[in-house]
Design a protein that fits this description.
Strand order of the largest sheet: 7-6-8-9-10-13-14
Order of helices and strands: HEHEHEHEEHEHEHEHEHEHHHEEEE
Number of strands: 14
Helix content: 40-55%
Number of helices: 12
């Protein structure tokens, strides 16, 4: 009898200890714990705050409706100050202490890359990071899912299109001397090469620069009538402000890296006419779209501030996660989530997000973007999605 009981006990222990039946990290009977790393105190803290609020808005809606297959979402957010070293520490806390199931909407290319070893060692998915870097889906990894068209592809598609539409004759580029700026530059060179055009002037600046007088003077002296900007917000405003001050008025094009209402709020008349590649559109409280207007006002009521495009990013990446987790069913595991994601198609939404499709060999949802322009102090969509 004792031998029989011992065998039963051993069999039970084997079942409980079986890797196939072991509980997935971050998934309990009544909760799914998810994490995000944002900049809440650094150079893009405004974006980080908006993203956090967009994530939380969708989480609250889902929980009010009963959660995901009966499980409530628990969102844990850490501040990394846009610092890759702090991102590693934040990832360690979320993965090892908070035991998150997935990392969602982590902001920044270098920050994501730095956190990958921490996530992947514990089989934690990096879902829809807020980065248009190719590292978000290359090299292939079963735990990587990205949704943002790369800066390279955005400019590769948009620059030749606008150059031809505007009949520009002398194309130049000014870019931040880092991975981001170089991606924009390389995209411009590749796209222009396809139409037989080369840049007649290329000038760069170091990250953190505030004086762009020499760069602007070089482009003006070269007679540039079209300028590709490998710049972020402050630098975009700085370059265009200096250009306007000196009577230099080419067509300016930038990537989605700086597409934000902050550009026209801070830049004023100096940035009027600026073009930018983008996907989801900036939500205004009085938007022409009734659906966007309703969403923007709901956000304003909840957080007592106007939404920005990063508010939308946070909302839509969380919405996509919820759709996939719901479809994965009550027995949610990392493997079941991956299996579902590898056959998922996400339709377009009220913000104009392009259709996204995934497979075991396709971890970037789409590679297209469209163009907006600042007209009368606000962004207006001026093109369809470019192929």
């Amino acid at each position: 009898m004792q031998l029989k009981l011992a065998l039963v006990a051993l069999a039970g222990a084997a079942v409980v200890g079986s890797p196939a039946l072991a509980q997935t990290q971050g998934v309990t009977k009544d909760q799914i714990i998810i994490g995000s790393i944002q900049d809440l105190s650094g150079p893009v803290a405004g974006f980080g705050k908006q993203t956090k609020q967009g994530l939380q808005m969708r989480v609250d809606e889902v929980n009010e409706q009963g959660g995901v297959n009966g499980r409530k979402l628990v969102l844990k957010v850490e501040d990394a100050g846009y610092d890759p070293k702090r991102a590693v520490l934040a990832a360690q806390k979320l993965v090892n202490q908070d035991k998150i199931f997935a990392m969602i909407g982590h902001i920044g290319t270098a920050q994501n890359v730095a956190s990958f070893p921490v996530l992947f060692e514990k089989n934690v998915i990096n879902f829809f990071p807020l980065s248009a870097g190719r590292e978000m889906y290359e090299p292939p990894n079963k735990l990587k899912y990205s949704y943002a068209s790369t800066y390279y592809d955005q400019i590769r598609q948009a620059a030749p299109r606008l150059v031809q539409e505007k009949n520009a004759q002398k194309v130049c580029a000014v870019y931040q001397d880092d991975d981001y700026g170089l991606e924009v530059l390389r995209g411009a060179e590749a796209g222009l090469k396809a139409i037989g055009v080369t840049l007649i002037e290329k000038t760069s600046f170091k990250r953190g620069a505030t004086d762009f007088s020499s760069q602007t003077a070089r482009m003006k002296a070269a007679g540039c009538d079209f300028v590709v900007l490998g710049t972020l917000i402050r630098e975009t405003i700085g370059v265009m402000g200096e250009a306007r001050k000196t009577g230099f008025n080419p067509i300016f094009l930038m990537s989605s890296g700086a597409y934000s209402d902050v550009i026209h709020k801070l830049g004023g008349k100096a940035v009027e006419g600026l073009y930018a590649t983008m996907t989801v559109q900036q939500p205004y409280l009085d938007d022409d779209s009734m659906a966007i207007r309703a969403w923007a006002n709901k956000y304003k009521t909840k957080f007592n501030e106007d939404p920005g495009v990063h508010s939308v990013y946070g909302y839509i990446v969380m919405d996509a996660f919820v759709k996939a987790a719901q479809k994965a069913g009550p027995s949610l595991t990392t493997e079941s989530f991956i299996q579902i994601m590898d056959s998922m198609t996400f339709p377009s939404d009220i913000f104009g997000t392009p259709v996204m499709t995934f497979s075991p060999t396709k971890r970037l949802g789409n590679d297209v973007s469209r163009i907006s322009q600042i007209q009368d102090g606000r962004w207006k969509v001026v093109s369809d999605y470019m192929k």
